[in-house]
Structure formats: C-alpha cells, structure tokens
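Much of our argument rests on the idea that a fold can be written as discrete symbols. The amino acid sequence and the backbone structure tokens for this protein are reproduced below:

___
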Amino acid sequence: MTDAVGQRGCPLAATRSAGRRSSCLPRAASLPGCFEPRGSALRLDAAIGNTVRFTGLAIEDVVPMASTRPAEYVGISTAGKVVAEWDAAACALRIERVTS
C-alpha cells in the first residue's frame, strides 16, 4: 500500500487529478503554486527497492511489509497477484505482470 497519487511516475509537468490541475514533482504531487505535497509520486516497486537498499532487510521480508500486512491491517483482502523479478545487485523490483 502506498500514498502515491495518480500522477506517480508522470513526467515533470502539470496534469489533471480529480478535475483539478496539479503539478508532479520528482517525489511528490502538489497543486499549482503550492509546495505542500498532495501525496507521494514514488512507485511502490521503487519504495520496496529503497527499503531493501537502505535497511539491509531481505526482499522476502520487505514485500509483505509493503503489501499484504498493511492491507490486512486496514481490512483489505488481496485483489490479485504480482509477478516480479528481483535484481539484487541493483536493489530493483521489476514488475512483469499483475493478475486478478
């Protein structure tokens, strides 16, 4: 689970979200002229890679911490399955496909 907003992964530009114009910064999205972030622009796969890289935790421990555990905490059941490849040298999770 993440607080990422619709602009996550977008180019540095103004976009529309919920009918309102908003700006996408490198790590956050905000309303024009406002420097307070509306939410994260960090993708969950990148957040997982950062957690492994900066904490030294194993990928097998980090993935549930970012997915099933928070979902269970707020009462959300699994919606599907993510098939991904882990590149340990780059600390990068590459999403191959998502199934429901």
